[in-house]
Amino acid sequence: MRNAVIAASLALTLNAAVNAAEPIKIGSVLSVTGTAAFLGDPELKTLQVYVDKINADGGVLGRKLQLISYDDASDAGKANGFTKRLIEADKVDFIIGGTTTGATMAMVPLVQKATIPFISLSGAVVVVEPVKKWVFKTSHTDRMAAEKIFEDMKKRGLSKVGLLSETSGFGQSGRKETQSVAAQYGITLVSDETYGQKDTDMTAQLTKIKGQPGVQAILVFGLGQGPAVATKNYGQLGMHALPLYQSHGVASEEYIRLAGVAAEGVRLPAPALLIADALPAADAQKAIVTSYRKTYRDRYKVEPSSFGGYALDALTLAVDAIKRAGSTDKEKVRDALETARGVAGTAGVINMSAKDHMGLDLSAFRMVEAKGGKWQPVN
């Protein structure tokens, strides 16, 4: 009997040691190439540098993190296929990704069925409304972006707006949410134009908007390079008398670089990261955004973007949930995610709940303006 007890005890000890040595597998599907590489490349780089950093500091629960990442090349169909691979072959504990709304929504049914905690990095409100048990997100929604922009327009006495939106999932959702909240802010959409994700010229659409009687401002809702093309065309058409707004889909220094001098004066809602140096010392996000900028710069020798910041927030939430769950048990980790409170991220201070799987309110957005090739806070 005594030998049996000793054997059982030894087996438990060995199993515990094996489990402790096994890495915690973080899966990701990101648009590192293709039309959304503008977003996905910094997301992957952020995950890589912070997984290395966490492992160098001892890992999580005494276990190393293992990042298993696939590039969907900005193709939602590929995102679906790679998610299956993460679930069935790689057997990951957690999934971060879905750079775009299209990719995310292709992944959602799979993670829901497999009951794996999933944090999306995409912007559309449909990701978390209605609430889906296993799905969370870190980026601000398109509805929030429209509301923040309309708040600023109202302050400037602008009420007649020309809308130019992308036909991608993000752009379509942005258009819908813009239309849904416009009246609440006294905004009339006097023009409603669209462009394709791969279009290289929007002169025709902008000319139509310019010709609308009484138009006072332009709002472009898209991501990647399209909005920069629209901005260049806006400059070529001499439309600077009409204030130009962009969504958070281009909240990065890269947008200014791509759009060039035509971006001067453009306004958009952005995370605190874009204006880290201008934040007061007492700001709840100051420490995290300045630390992230330094870490990313030191590793890659370039400025980070808000999209990379969304990836950092997702990894931060995942690690926090695993620690509080005390294991990688998927149900426990999911429950811990849903009860995350007061987590300072690059996108804002995150407070999740059973009814809110994003945890950000409108105050998480900062209105910024391009001045002298840099983003500056709007006073």
Automatic annotation (TrEMBL):
Belongs to the leucine-binding protein family. The lineage of its organism: Bacteria, Pseudomonadati, Pseudomonadota, Betaproteobacteria, Burkholderiales. This is ABC transporter substrate-binding protein. Residues 23-371 form the Leucine-binding protein domain. PANTHER family: BLR7848 PROTEIN, LEUCINE-SPECIFIC-BINDING PROTEIN. CDD domains: PBP1_ABC_RPA1789-like. Residues 1-20 form the signal peptide. It comes from the Bacteria. Keywords: Amino-acid transport, Signal, Transport. Pfam families: Peripla_BP_6.
